[in-house]
Design a protein that fits this description.
The chain is of the alpha/beta class. It is built from 20 helices and ten strands. The structure holds adenosine-5'-diphosphate and magnesium ion.
């Protein structure tokens, strides 16, 4: 069970000074606590024998105040250090998981659910934090404070101690039972809370559709249902909690009753003094917490170990797509693309998405790829920046297999505008720069001009500093597409791929943008997927895909004259282009 925690070892070593100081403070507080009953004993004994002078009592009182102040200070110190340590573990673990998730390939994301990954990052990390913070404290207290208290009790009277300890197994067992129930209850509450948040988010995001279809009451009942589930789970959890403390005091009082009954007799028989008797009762009270801690900590460690097992499963996942040779190509890429016998299967698919594709795109050419929906255009494009993994040699750039090109260099050399436009809730400027360094204002102005965004952005109150998304402007589909094109153009990469990147822009704007791109990118390679005949016809070479196979290639006039697949596609699309006008 503990081997799951092995990957946390480095964090314990890193934080060792804080941990040692924190745990020493904890032990100091524990031992100071144990001395308070000793002082009580002394004062009570002095009082019963009639030897207590006001001066003596003041001295005892001052000692107790002194102990209390020292305890308060060191309790503050250990809480700060030990809980601080657990927060650091939490942070390091979260960053490590996120970094690892980023390195993992798309194929990992096909087989994992986002919700599960979110749960790793939230619930599981939390369980580990609990165990490394409070768990560590509870373990120390349970063992050290528990044994020491029992030691002090034995010192007073062995028989009385053994008898009074009779209910303690009940405390440990019952704590385990309740905390386990609380654990599952708590998970259920978190789970339903996530579902509730998600359904509210969905309902708000889809408010337009809800209104258009008059589905308000249906949406309302869906959210309400989730809310009811959430409350029910919370009440279940509350019931376990409500049971816990009354049961604990019951068990403690049971012990107390035994002590008063038997201990009282011992006092009368003068085996122990009145002061010892009172001190014994204090120790018995002190013992409740270590017993509860032992019950709690075993569960906490079990839960954390299950969480670590799930986290380790993600961390052990090996990124499929990485640099494969020790000295990958880091030089400048010119932009010739060669595809050799490329066949590609998506996992668990019987039919290949691409079959025996063979083509060469010369550096500086502009090519178009056409084909019906699902013919494999996007799949083909994604193999070039190794978003989808092919066999070594199937795809080459400047004659070098892409597997031998440094992955960072490869992806930086390709500007890829994907079908889906991913916009961050940030300013327009940050969405274009997208974390790149040293981008001058001139370049930004240029790419906004090329993407035909200048006029629109100037009309926004804050220009390029306007916020997008949740708290800002909602862009139209076409605006989003043009923005993502600006993002790709900014580094003027040797290869530019536009995968259906202008589908929501009107025909004349598309033509203007294309003109400007071709002008700006002379001598660089462009690969364009489009449905607009006016765009396609301008390519140097057009490749026609059908069901994953390359069925035709050539320039526009040749292909049109051949009167085959391309002519059919062209005529159909020309019709729709005319309808659009
Ligand atoms: P296009 O871009 O030409 O519309 P795609 O390259 O997106 O076509 O898809 C080609 C084929 O691969 C389609 O049959 C599609 O259903 C399939 N496909 C695409 N992505 C996946 C995936 N992640 N898993 C399984 N099949 C996929
Ligand atoms: Mg596509």
């Amino acid at each position: 069970m503990l081997k799951e925690f092995k990957s946390l070892k480095t964090y314990f070593i890193e934080n060792r000074i804080a941990l040692i100081l924190g745990l020493s403070s904890l032990l100091l507080v524990d031992f100071l606590q144990l001395f308070i009953p000793r002082i009580i004993k002394k004062s009570v004994d002095a009082l019963t024998v009639g030897q207590a002078s006001p001066g003596l009592l003041v001295r005892y009182a001052l000692i107790i105040v002194g102990i209390a102040i020292t305890m308060a200070i060191f309790r503050y110190i250990w809480r700060y250090l030990v809980f601080g340590h657990s927060r650091k573990v939490e942070e390091a673990l979260r960053n490590r998981i996120y970094k690892h998730l980023q390195a993992l390939s798309l194929s990992f994301y096909w087989k994992s659910k986002t919700g599960d990954l979110m749960a790793r990052a939230v619930n599981d990390i939390d369980a580990v934090r609990m165990a490394t913070g409070m768990g560590l404290v509870a373990l120390t207290d349970g063992v050290v404070l528990g044994l020491a208290t029992i030691g002090f009790m034995l010192y007073i009277d062995i028989k009385l101690t053994l008898i009074s300890l009779l209910p303690t197994p009940l405390i440990i067992y019952f704590t385990r039972f309740i905390t386990r129930r609380m654990g599952t209850g708590f998970n259920r509450v978190q789970q339903t809370f996530a579902e509730l948040t998600e359904s509210v988010r969905e309902a708000l995001a889809g408010i337009r559709v809800t209104k258009a279809y008059n589905r308000q009451s249906w949406e309302y009942s869906r959210v309400k249902e989730q809310g009811e589930k959430y409350i029910k789970n919370n009440l279940d959890l509350g019931r376990s909690l409500a049971l816990f403390f009354p049961m604990m005091t019951l068990f403690t009082n049971l012990g107390l009753a035994i002590v008063i009954w038997i201990g009282g007799r011992l006092t009368i028989l003068e085996n122990i003094t009145t002061g010892d008797f009172v001190a014994f009762i204090s120790y018995l009270n002190l013992l409740t917490w270590p017993m509860m801690a032992l019950g709690w900590v075993t569960n906490s460690i079990q839960r954390a170990s299950a969480s670590m097992r799930r986290i380790n499963r993600v961390l052990d996942e090996v990124p499929e797509i990485t640099n494969q040779i020790t000295n990958p190509f880091r030089g400048v890429i010119k932009g010739e693309i060669g595809v050799r016998n490329l066949t590609f299967y998506y996992p668990e698919q019987g039919n290949p998405a691409l079959k025996d594709i063979d083509l060469t795109i010369e550096a500086g050419h502009t090519v178009a790829i056409v084909g019906a929906v699902g013919s494999g255009k996007s799949t083909l494009l994604q193999t070039t920046p190794r978003l989808l993994e092919t066999e070594r040699g199937m795809v080459q750039i400047d004659g070098i297999p892409i597997h031998d090109i440094d992955l960072r260099n490869l992806r930086e050399s390709i500007g890829f505008v994907t079908q889906e436009t991913h916009i961050l809730s940030d300013t327009i400027l940050n969405n274009i720069i997208f974390g790149r360094q040293g981008i001058g204002n001139e370049i930004i102005k240029d790419v906004l001009e090329v993407s035909q965004l200048t006029c629109e952005i100037d009309s926004f109150p804050k220009g390029t500093h306007s916020l997008l998304g949740e708290k800002g402007i909602t862009l139209s589909g076409g605006q989003r597409q043009r923005l993502t094109i600006a993002r790709a153009l900014i580094s003027n990469p040797p290869i530019l791929i536009l995968d259906d990147a202008l589908s929501q822009v009107d025909t004349s704007t598309e033509a203007t943008i294309l003109n400007r791109i071709l002008e700006m990118r002379q001598g660089k390679t462009n690969i364009i997927v489009s449905h607009r005949p006016s765009t396609i016809s301008r390519a140097d070479i057009i490749y026609v895909l059908r069901a994953g196979r390359l069925v035709e290639r050539g320039d526009h006039t040749t292909l049109l004259a051949a009167r085959r697949e391309y002519t059919r596609l062209y005529e159909r699309q020309q019709l729709s282009e005319e309808l659009e006008r």
